[in-house]
Structures are given as C-alpha cells and as structure tokens.
Amino acid sequence: MTKMMHCANVYRMGTFVAEAFSFFHDHAVFSDSVEYFVFPGFADVHVHLREPGFSYKETILTGTRAAARGGFTAVCSMANLSPVPDTVANLQTQLDMIDRDACILVKPMGAITVGEKGNRIADLEGMAPMVSAFSDDGCGVADAGLMREAMQRAHALGKVIAAHCEDTRYLPADPRSEWSEVERDILLAADTGAALHVCHVSSEVSLSLIRQAKRDGIDVSCETAPHYLLLDETMCEDFGKWKMNPPLRSPKDKAALIEAVLDGTVDMIATDHAPHSAEEKSRGFEKSLNGIVGLECAFPVLYTGLVREGILSIEDLVRLMSINPRQRFSLGGTEVDIDAYTVWAIGQRDTVDPSRFLSMGRCTPFEGMNVYAACAETVYKNRPVWSSGKP
Fold first, then answer.
1. DSSP letter string, 30-64
2. Shortest CA distance to 379 belongs to which of 333, 346, 335?
C-alpha cells in the first residue's frame, strides 16, 4: 500500500524532498487522528554496530534491521571494533560483513590512529576511498601534533575528521573534558583547512566555540543526540540506561542545545547508538558501561518532545536527520530517490518498549515514554526493509 507525505509544497529540503513528496501527494492516506508522511530515509552518522569483534552486543544484521525500523536507510559505523579499521585489510573484514548482512547503506568510518591508541596515524590514504570519514570515536586524540598531521592528511584526501572530543585530564562530568578539546581541534582545523566534525556535543561552551568558528569561516560541523536535547542530569537514576559518554548535563546545557539546533549551530542529530549486553548495563549507574541505544526511538521521541511541543518544525527535524548528514558525509540520497524513503504514521500513539526492539541492545532512558509517531515502512533500493504490517 502506497502511503505519502501531505503538504508537499511546504517541504523544500532539496530536490529529493520537493519531487518525492509531490510524487506521493496524490496517494495520501489519512484517518481522523493519524496522517502518513513519507520522508527521505534518515541518515545516522554515529552508530556502533559492534561487528567485527563484539557480536554479543550487536551485529551488522541486527543493527541495520533496527536502523530500518527507525526509518534510517544510511548509517556510518564507528571504528572501535576488533580489528580496528586502521588498515585496508582490517577495514575489509568489516566491509565483507556489511556486504553480507546489511539491509541498508553502511559507510564505515576509518580510525584516525592505529588501534585508536593515539600513537601513530592509521593508513588514511589506503582507506579513504572506502570510508565516510576518520574517527577515533570513544577516544580523544590527546596529542595535538598527531591530530594536526591527521587533519592535514584528511584534508588532502577530501575527508572529514569526526572528533570525539574528550580531554582525560578532567572527569567526563566536567564540561571542560569536552570543550577544551573542541577548542583545540577548532584551532587545528583553522590552521590546516581540514573539515572538522564534532561528535555528540553536549555542553553550552562547546556550542559557543563552534558557533564562533562557523562565523569565522572554519569548516566545522557538529551533531548532538536525542538524549541531550530532551533529558538532563536532574533526571538520572541509578540504572545503566542513564549512563553514556558524554553524560547528560545541566538543564542550562540542554536549553543551549535546543537554541543551537534552532539557530543552525547544530548541523545534525545522530543517535550514538551504542548497544551493550544486559549484564554490562545491569551494574547500576556507576559501574555500567557507557552507551545507550537509539536507532528505533530517535524520531518518535524527537517528534514528540520537540515538534509536537512547537519547538521545532517537522521540516527542520527531517533536515537534521536526513538532508544535512547526507550532505556532510557524502551519503547520497539528497536528490530524487524514491527507492529509499521512510513512511511514518504521525499522530499514532505508541510507547517506547525495548522488548520490541530489533537491536540486541535494550537500554534506553526513553523506555516507557509515550510518543506520537510510529514507523509504518522503510524502503531501501526499492524494497521494504521494515514494515509494521499495518495498513
């Protein structure tokens, strides 16, 4: 059954959106309380698929199925794997698994340094044609000289450096652990001309630095995650589902993030989907591993918490979750492509229920939240990769 997005003339987020929405407009399906919208498939540039090396947490098969259920048709997989994709041979191990098991587009990130250990630069030149960007996600690159060299080489290759900014001289709960390295990397990007992307921004000071860098013409972009926009440290309880890195910060930081989304400082929203085993997340807040899952509930919680509350338009939410990440990381899909889209029942009441997740991870602080959007279907390469089975 063909479902579509209504109000096609309102949406002008690139050629895909204008023409694809027009294509579907004559096939609208409405009910008294639910309207079906078609969007270009979402793109998440910060996903931990855990394979190779940690398939007890997640696999490419389960992770991409979860992504499809959440409306995503493209993801960038992070490099903290075993083997770490720091050479062409190690990267190929992951690429072979992707070719075999992925149901959507998966574009890996290659490591910045060998083993993500921050001592020697990885084979950036060899991996460049096969990766979306370079990142030592999970680890900040502490050596400024090494980061400068990595930026110079990435710039020559036309690739983005996606920086996990964490200065380990400070505890993660201290915002300086984030913004001090954001500040350093912006200066390095200015000196080298590199394209810098700051991962999972969470603090007000980081946003101020990035905003000024953009005004100064530095090639910098950034992402934040749904939990930083909707939750804050006052809500945390002694459960593993509240443990992530960077941690939830103050209500003031959350307000600054929303402001930065509205003024364009934040370019995109990424989930930082980071599944762990049930045991690894059952040790209470202090001892549980960092990381929560987000692919399957990102759009529903953001629509409910931001769009339905009148804070953000649905056009801008789709831009943040689809158009902008695709453009920054060259993931395609910004032109007309009715073979890759996602259909949502907007207004349909649902509850975030991890027991229904397709991901092997079950830990999310959004568990039990009432939401007002449900994914009806996701199509990739002209075939359904997720369907709710409902008309």
1. B-SS-EEEEEEPEEEEEE---TTT-TTT--HHHHH
2. 333
Our separate counts of H helices and E strands in the chain read 13, 12
Whole-model pTM above 0.85? Answer: yes
Tens digits of pLDDT across the chain (391 residues)? 333 343 332 233 334 444 444 434 333 344 448 999 999 999 999 999 999 999 999 999 999 999 999 999 999 999 999 999 999 999 999 999 999 999 999 999 999 999 999 999 999 999 999 999 999 998 889 999 999 999 999 999 999 999 999 999 999 999 999 999 999 999 999 999 999 999 999 999 999 999 999 999 999 999 999 999 999 999 999 999 999 999 999 999 999 999 999 999 999 999 999 999 999 999 999 999 999 999 999 999 999 999 999 999 999 999 999 999 999 999 986 544 567 899 999 999 999 999 999 999 999 999 999 999 999 999 999 899 999 975 4
Structure tokens given for 34: 């639910």
Q: How far apart are CA 45 and CA 132, in angstroms?
A: 9
* Distance from the Cα of residue 215 to its chain's centroid: 24
What residues act catalytically?
272
Residue 70 to residue 270: CA distance in whole angstroms: 12
Residue 345 CA to residue 55 CA, distance in Å, equals 32
All domains in the chain, ordered by first residue: 40-340 (3.20.20.140)
Q: Which residue has the tokens 């698994």?
A: 97
- Nearest Cα neighbor of 62 from 358, 371, 383 is 358
